[in-house]
Amino acid sequence: MSHFEYSVVPAPSRGEKAKDAKTPGDRYAVALTAELNRMARDGWEYVRADVLPSEERSGLTGRSTVYHNLLVFRRAVSAPAAGTMARQPQPEYPAAASPARAPEPVPALPQAAAPQPSDHSTGGPVVAATEDATPPAPRTAPSQG
User: Fold this and answer.
1) What is the per-residue pLDDT across 41-97, written as a single tens digit (0 to 9) for each?
2) Where is the composition biased (Basic and acidic residues) (predicted)?
């Protein structure tokens, strides 16, 4: 089974001057031929031309739809060997997000300040604080008077 990779490039936006090209259509054909031949030298086979919409900024806050003329090319890629992963396609423009970092290690927390039952080796029973215990009265500044 044949596998292909694809390349999409913008079609020429204007013609090129040439000795035999007298009309605007002839000049555009020269520019298009040059682009097709350039891609063919790198092993790309022309597939088709497409006109696709793209939403773009218009002014400070507006958006408008613009249509782009694109040329689609493909070339055969050898099938990956059994048990290996095929190369994933990469975006033409890398993402703006920063690369992911490895998580930072969690620092070791100090032991609690309260004494632990193992801190007292009296051998007696450990008495736990109860909810009925009265908390100490809050401290207040002495009143002047």
Assistant:
1) 999 999 999 999 999 998 888 999 999 999 999 999 887 655 555 566 666 655 555
2) 14-23
Structure tokens at 94: 């890398």
- Tell me how far apart the alpha carbons of residues 38 and 41 are, in angstroms, rounded to a whole number: 5
Smallest CA-to-CA distance from 13 within 22, 24, 5, 3 is with 24
Give yes or no for a contact between 72 and 52, defined as CB atoms under 8 angstroms apart: no
**pTM listed for this prediction:** 0.51
What is the distance between the alpha carbons of residues 142 and 18, in angstroms, rounded to a whole number? 101
